């Protein structure tokens, strides 16, 4: 996503992350920096930048050192990190009318002095859109009805929309609860009950995925590329795919778990079965095609985009390819594990699958 930061604004490409809530970018004078193509943000050159005094109510959910400024520490599963102080500044976003912009004052963000991670050169930081008060979605709040949407296409530019999309199809809706853990309310959690490969139901043992258990819950996360599943579910899925796929295997040095196949054309892709994730609810199936399930590894070869979990199960960005996801973030007073979220899936609208997540009050 592209964000204008400061006054006058400088545009930066940022990674949207649904599993975190801090917004940060690298700043001028950083002592540890990763390479980026855009100039580092210089708070001294912005008329609207102001450091945040510690212990304001906005930062109740963040570990911080209370000194003269409000410090932050952002740590991610891929070992990316960013540390320094919170500031507020004006953010600028392009509207749905191309060429027109809207400014939002006093957006709290981290001005990173120590930043580490492996990012594309055009990336300057991360925008957290999780559920805590620091999330960009909660900071925009009533201005966007606490709602945002995104689409992660297989090719082209990702789309992020604040508020209600102007043209939203309502065909073939499917729904399932979307939950969260009271003791860790940042994450959006799905209730996965079983998986089908082609027409073969895997019969995952009940309780393998538990949305009320931090160790066995399944997080939907746009900031993690691959999907990670409980080892038992992963093994059954991989074994079933391996039995069903009649393509030449590819041996890749250093890759022992994922399935790799030689794929030369569309006909080869058609020989890979779809995988359906059965989420709770009467109509909660999420069907994933072969081009989303397997990702390009090298010319003429594809790699399974699912791994056994390490620190927990994650429904990652690659498997959400060509999905449209709309989420409504609830007020902070909503803390019950069974808050009535719903997720709707719309199949084959302009060759895309659309997913919408709402809070039903």
TrEMBL record:
Residues 1-342 form the Peptidase A1 domain. GO terms for molecular function: aspartic-type endopeptidase activity. It comes from the Eukaryota. GO terms for biological process: proteolysis. PROSITE patterns: PEPTIDASE_A1. This is Peptidase A1 domain-containing protein. The keyword Mitochondrion does not apply. Pfam families: TAXi_C, TAXi_N. The keyword Transcription does not apply. Belongs to the peptidase A1 family. GO terms for cellular component: extracellular region. SUPFAM superfamilies: Acid proteases (SSF50630). Keywords: Aspartyl protease, Glycoprotein, Hydrolase, Protease.
């Amino acid at each position: 996503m592209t964000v204008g930061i400061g006054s006058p604004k400088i545009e930066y490409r940022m990674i949207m992350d649904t599993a975190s809530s801090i917004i940060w970018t690298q700043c001028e004078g950083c002592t540890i920096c990763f390479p980026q193509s855009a100039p580092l943000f210089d708070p001294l050159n912005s008329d609207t930048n102001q450091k945040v005094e510690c212990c304001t109510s906005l930062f109740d959910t963040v570990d911080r050192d209370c000194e003269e400024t409000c410090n932050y520490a952002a740590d991610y599963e891929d070992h990316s990190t960013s540390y320094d102080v919170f500031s507020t500044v004006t953010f600028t976003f392009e509207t749905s009318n191309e060429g027109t912009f809207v400014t939002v004052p006093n957006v709290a963000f981290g001005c990173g002095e120590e930043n580490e991670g492996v990012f594309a050169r055009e990336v300057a930081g991360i925008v957290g859109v999780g559920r805590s008060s620091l999330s960009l979605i909660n900071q925009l709040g009533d201005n966007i009805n606490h709602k945002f949407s995104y689409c992660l296409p297989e090719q082209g530019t990702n789309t992020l929309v604040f508020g209600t999309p102007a043209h939203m199809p309502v065909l073939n809706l499917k729904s399932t609860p979307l939950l969260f853990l009271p003791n860790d309310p940042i994450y959006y959690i799905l209730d996965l009950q079983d998986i089908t490969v082609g027409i073969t139901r895997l019969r995952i043992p009940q309780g393998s995925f538990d949305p009320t258990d931090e160790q066995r819950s399944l997080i939907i996360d746009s900031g993690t590329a691959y999907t990670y599943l409980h080892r038992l579910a992963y093994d059954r899925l991989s074994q079933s795919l391996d039995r069903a796929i009649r393509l030449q295997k590819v041996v890749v040095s250093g890759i022992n778990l994922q399935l790799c196949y030689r794929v030369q054309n569309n006909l080869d892709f058609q020989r890979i079965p779809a995988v359906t994730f059965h989420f709770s609810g009467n109509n909660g199936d999420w069907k994933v095609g072969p081009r989303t399930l397997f990702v390009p590894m090298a010319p003429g070869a594809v790699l399974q985009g699912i791994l056994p979990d390490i620190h927990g199960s994650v429904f990652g960005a690659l498997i959400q390819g060509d999905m449209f996801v709309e989420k409504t973030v609830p007020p902070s007073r909503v803390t019950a594990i069974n808050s009535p979220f719903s997720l709707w899936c719309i199949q084959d609208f302009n060759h895309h699958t659309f997913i919408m997540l709402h809070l039903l009050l």
